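WP5 quarterly update. Target: NADH-quinone oxidoreductase subunit NuoF. Source organism: Schaalia naturae. Length: 433 aa.
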Amino acid sequence: MTTYSAPSTLTPILTRGWGEDRSWTLESYRSRGGYEGLARANTMTAAEIIDVVKAAGLRGRGGAGFPTGLKWSFLPPDDGLPRYLVVNSDESEPGACKDVPLLMANPHALVEGVIIGSRALNCHHAFVYLRGEVPHAYRRLLSAIKEAEDAGLLGGLRITAHAGAGAYICGEETALLDSLEGHRGHPRLKPPFPAAEGLYARPTAVNNVETISQVPEIFRESAEWYASMGTEKSKGHGIFSLSGHVAHPGQFEAPFGITMREILDMAGGIRPGHHLKFWTPGGSSSPIFTEAELDVPLDYESVVGAGSMLGTRSLQVFDETTSVVRVVTRWVEFYQHESCGKCTPCREGTYWLKQILLRLERGQGLPGDVDLLEEIAGNIAGRSFCALGDAAATPVRSGIAKFRDEFEAGLTTPARELFPYEASANYQRGGVR
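Structure tokens (predicted):
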């Protein structure tokens, strides 16, 4: 198969029709080819559906990038008892903003994907776990499920949309399952993995919203069509969420392998009169990049090779007016607040990271604080019960590695003097800065 070379143009597939009137309705979705993929999948066996998804090369769009068809195939043979498909829509990491807009503008893509995925797993009850803070998306999904049910598209499948209580930790798949079962959202010890013992101790596949929403197009077109996009190992396309100090922030749906330089060009570049200082390829939990990495292909392997993670493709952009210490402090405050407290490295480590960063931000750092930050972060990373601890330690370590002088400056000078808030603000009274 020919390796696809990413163009400098976008591939609106999931985002096609977002600007149309009432794009979230069944009528609008069907006018764009909606549920044609389901009709084709209904002619296949469960094993054939999984083989098509494998051939397409679809990988998880929630951050880890694990092959979707392979994950589905991990479920043990059907024993006649319940099996579940759970969709993770607990999107809440700083910078992440693709799943909620997708649910708002195109919820039927998810519903169709859930139906196809449930057929592949021989699942009769699927769940979509949403954040309780986004009732507008929750209502829209409920409406889409009802439309599909009234149109006879579910075929006996039951889809439950569940609104969580608002905890970042519930984005971790096993904590999400605990929350669905009515318990406090705490990560579980693995193994056993959800494929063997997940929801209610039954075989369960847990996938991201964007992952499942991409399934219908594979069947509407073909596995070969999907695999022709992207790179050899990162096939297909994804939604890149661009935010921060850019002229035109927004959602950019493009093939994997496109570069940040290309996306920035499409977005009109850095805001007028300023230049890029640093950016994140995968949200606040990914090691930060600078101008030197603008031409790194945005695919899973290339980004890892350059020292970061593609994650959820949350491209946060910061110009030269931004204090790295201030940004990292806000991120760590978030992770410290969202730590479930189950394990000591994360519970205690994030607290001390926050205390040290706050005094550096105030210009009241103590001698040795920067080294102490690195030491604490090193004791958290790889030693926590789940990935939240790693997410908190990563921006601290990468921030110090690339901008150590700013952290050292925190021993004597407040960040507000070195980088006034007014200079970093995108919007102020009197217009755009």
